[in-house]
Amino acid sequence: MGILLISKDTVAPWNTKVIAPVTRGLEAWFTFDTDAARFGFNRAPYKPNGRIVGSPVAYSTHGRFKSLVNFIQTEAPDTAKVTIIAVGRSPVAVPDPIPTPDPRPVYASTFSGPSITPGIPGNSTGVTLYPGGAALLASTAARSNGSGGISVGQVSTADDPTAWGIRVLRASDTEGTLVQNITRASKVVGSAGTQRALTANKFRIGSAFSQFPGEVDISSIAIYSEALTDEEIALVAERMRTRMQRLGVTV
What we know:
Elements: E1 6-7, E2 17-18, E3 26-31, E4 51-53, E5 57-58, E6 63-66, E7 71-77, E8 82-89, E9 108-109, E10 113-114, E11 123-124, E12 127-133, E13 136-141, E14 143-144, E15 150-151, E16 154-158, E17 165-171, E18 178-181, E19 186-189, E20 202-205, E21 215-224, H1 230-246
Parallel strand pairs: 1-2
Antiparallel strand pairs: 3-21, 4-7, 5-6, 6-21, 7-20, 8-17, 8-21, 9-12, 9-20, 10-11, 12-13, 13-16, 14-15, 17-18, 18-19
């Protein structure tokens, strides 16, 4: 028999769970700072820890990840409804235009892997939250194209990738994909949703499964298997904002 200690404050000791302001569908709640050896701890109650891959670097306010090399492999699945809320930034400017190979970083992603959605064969691009360009934030959510294939469905909004911000992706079968920078008050919702084309991949934090080899700074991130409402997203963002204030960063 053991005792589960749950903290309502995400600045609590690293090995305590968190009661998030929104708990429905919560799959992952990670905070990164100070000690990289602790980066795999998932604060979401009753959810499995992540696996540290490579050597992410710890700073006093965040962790630095390099896609495809240094990241967190979670057990959070790609789902028909998904919300990602991340506090982070790109440590270097995103080039414009984007060169080949693509150097951009990633906040969280299941891109790309085999489709597990019946009737939609092939390789699914999953979902990804990442800088869309030198002045853009992008979210992608793979969907049915209505003809048995898969469309990517990228949506972008104005952003400064190098500035700290609370960045959001939301997608579901029933609504267009949302991309949002709460700190900057920029937000775009894509056209009406179609069936999500899910990938077998589990979410990576700070990395994709292919391409996008850039570095990213992340302080905290939450992944939900629900499409949170705007009001619910605001509640989670406020909790993250409070933590960042105590770390001396304004978002």
